[in-house]
TrEMBL record:
This is Peptidase S1 domain-containing protein. It comes from Chelonoidis abingdonii. The lineage of its organism: Eukaryota, Metazoa, Chordata, Craniata, Vertebrata. InterPro entries: Peptidase_S1_PA, Peptidase_S1_PA_chymotrypsin, Peptidase_S1A, Trypsin_dom, TRYPSIN_HIS. Residues 1-17 form the signal peptide. GO terms for biological process: proteolysis. It holds the Pfam family Trypsin. Residues 11-239 form the Peptidase S1 domain.
Length: 243
């Protein structure tokens, strides 16, 4: 039996991303009581970042335009979060509806290093076998605590729901076909992991998934929140909060 845990993210089997090739990526510094966590997110409007509810906290600072997060790069824009809107039906035990909208205190300045990523159409389905990609500043080895300085990325295959539902050992017993995606071929040692939590699964030019959960040894498949399911809710929230 493998314990399942919420991940603070990692790219296994990937490589360093080309400088500012993913200008929608957000690095989140989250204060929860006295502890600081890190997560990922992605810019969907000038003043809205999408991430996972398990990355919620008391205070969040969003960094946009970053490549090396250990340096103060000129391209970086650090913006505090004004308002956190977690999905009202998020379930911490089953990881269902693991999605949260963050409203920034002010709009990001869009340029070559900071750009939006399009969201999918409501209820759009990604065909199993589609190769998508994920990026993050997470651990690159399940046994190592060292985090990379620069943005890493990896290509991953979207699997049929059955690949998670019928996986031996009951690891994915909380998998929900409506709100989740099963991603990452078990035969390939490639995955998102600790430090990549809540980054986008990008298929073509679109953010189709949000890194959510999986086995704590870093093995694929991993489970992603299915963004297309939440489009009606996201649009309603953004309309309501837009100044």
């Amino acid at each position: 039996f493998l314990a399942v845990m919420i991940l603070l993210g990692l790219i296994i089997g990937g490589w360093e991303a080309k400088l500012h090739s993913r200008p929608y990526m957000a690095h989140l510094a989250i204060q929860r009581k006295e502890i600081t966590y890190i997560c990922r997110g992605f810019l969907v409007l000038e003043n809205f970042v999408l991430t996972a509810t398990h990355c919620n906290g008391d205070k969040i600072i969003v960094s946009l335009g970053a490549h090396n997060i250990k340096q103060q790069e000129q391209s970086q824009q650090n913006i505090p979060v004004r308002c956190r809107i977690p999905h009202p039906k998020y379930n911490r035990k089953t990881h269902k509806n693991d999605i949260i909208l963050l409203q920034l205190k002010h709009k990001a300045e869009l340029n070559e290093q900071v750009r939006l990523i399009p969201l999918p159409l409501a209820h759009q389905r990604v065909q199993p076998g589609t190769v998508c990609s994920v990026a993050g500043w997470g651990r690159t080895n399940a046994l190592s605590e060292v985090l990379p300085r620069t943005l890493q990325e990896v290509d991953l295959k979207v699997l049929d729901d059955e690949a998670c539902l019928k996986y031996p050992g009951g690891i994915y017993r909380n998998y929900n076909t409506r709100t989740m995606m099963c991603v990452g071929d078990p035969k390939e040692h490639k995955a998102s992991f600790k430090g990549d939590s809540a980054g986008p699964l990008v298929c073509g030019e679109t953010a189709q998934g949000v890194v959510s959960w999986g086995p704590d040894n870093g093995s694929p498949p991993r489970v992603y929140a299915k963004v297309s399911t939440f489009i009606p809710w996201l649009k309603a929230m953004m309309r309501r909060l837009q100044p």
